[in-house]
Amino acid sequence: xxxxxxxxxxxxxxxxxxxxxxxxxxxxxxxxxxxxxxxxxxxxxxxxxxxxxxxxxxxxxxxxxxxxxxxxxxxxxxxxxxxxxxxxxxxxxxxxxxxxxxxxxxxxxxxxxxxxxxxxxxxxxxxxxxxxxxxxxxxxxxxxxxxxxxxxxxxxxxxxxxxxxxxxxxxxxxxxxxxxxxxxxxxxxxxxxxxxxxxxxxxxxxxxxxxxxxxxxxxxxxxxxxxxxxxxxxxxxxxxxxxxxxxxxxxxxxxxxxxxxxxxxxxxxxxxxxxxxxxxxxxxxxxxxxxxxxxxxxxxxxxxxxxxxxxxxxxxxxxxxxxxxxxxxxxxxxxxxxxxxxxxxxxxxxxxxxxxxxxxxxxxxxxxxxxxxxxxxxxxxxxxxxxxxxxxxxxxxxxxxxxxxxxxxxxxxxxxxxxxxxxxxxxxxxxxxxxxxxxxxxxxxxxxxxxxxxxxxxxxxxxxxxxxxxxxxxxxxxxxxxxxxxxx
Length: 488
Ligand code: LFR
What we know:
globular, transferase, rhamnose metabolism, alpha/beta, Nucleotidyltransferase, domain 5, 2 domains, 6-stranded mixed beta sheet, ATPase_NBD
């Protein structure tokens, strides 16, 4: 029997984990060896990530894997959320903490850039959904504000690449994470240089882009000594968490849509090449890069962030568990209040329940009176937004979609899974919940030559994890609610 061990570091906006993956006869099992919280740090009115404490936590994960679990992994790899980056000076030193994507410095950056470059042209050249926090707008805001930091920047590295750099000393930019920046040629390992030059962004700070599934170096001697590890390979997997997650969708064929459900609900399909047209521009769809040359044609929907932020706000009075919040919603009247989850007021309002209440009032629906009504409103609105997004995808792609795979932590939410099946009329296949770590680990296995293709990866996922199927129920008021939602 051949057994291989890999350690995945999966960093999200609210937590990070070190997950040990053991591949034995084409079956994968996972063990969480370390978990920690992650949070934006507010300093003088700006939001940052503390990359150095995150790196400490990752090293603790490796240390624990070796000393507590007695396993020396064969390799490690990091994936994180998209778009954020660190600055290196010409000595390779990290300059300052990286800004967090919800920071307010990009509040007007899109309009400011569109005064120089027409919006349509930016979309045509990048094929990426406009979100004010995309790296393009983050960098442009620094150009606009004459940032001294940008002046002394020799190189930028996206979050997973920066952590790989701390582990290995090798500064490499990986394709999937670079594709979230809105700065590359759609589907290619190439920066959209003319566009960046017009925006005044110095292209010398961007390194060559490599494909996922390659070894980028080995642990430095210093890190190996500190963690008790040997100098194992550091692998560039799909560094973007969503790309890693979608690699592990347990699909047997192409006829599916997916929702990668976490802080964001990422809704889309996998396509052989980008889909870029006037219509996809009007719908503001994105084409992010995946593994093995795949494109993720998708939409970011404000997902569990809405719930997470309500919970955080209410924690002063009531410390709800996620399950308690689901039960409150289940027992509350359906479709009484609806919001557009993607309204920009929900990006970082500080007080989410107040923002939701204001939206309901401003749209003539009155005021949700209880926590239960607010939570119900979020879940109903998410399910309706999923249907809206599915309809949009169907309007630009002939791909038959006969099921929705929900993966990631949100796949545990049976209430929302059933609601999604009912509202979309499609069966929902829920699981695996650890999709991102799974995709990360199986890409490590591929890089080291134990698996060959994306199809192999998905076969291992099917063999290794149980899924739950939610069939659409009939008789609810879904269609009526959908009409109301579309008229919001
Ligand atoms: C999900 C995710 C999304 C990206 C958002 C911000 O964790 O990576 O794909 O759009 O975070 O980076």
